[in-house]
Amino acid sequence: MLNKVSILFQSDLSMTDCVEEFFRTAVKRWDLEDDRIDWIALSLREAVNNAIIHGNSNLFEKKVEVVMEANEKNIVFKIWDEGRGFDINSLPDPTTEENLLRPHGRGIFLISKFVDGVKFICRETGFGIELKVNLSK
Amino acid sequence: MKYEVLEKGNVTVIKLSGRITLGSGDVKLRDKLVEELEKGKKKIVLDLGEVSFMDSAGLGELVAAYTSAKRHGAQVKLSNLTKKIDDLLDITRLSSVFETYNSTEEAVKSF
Question: Is A3-134 assigned to CATH 3.30.565.10?
Answer without folding.
Answer: yes
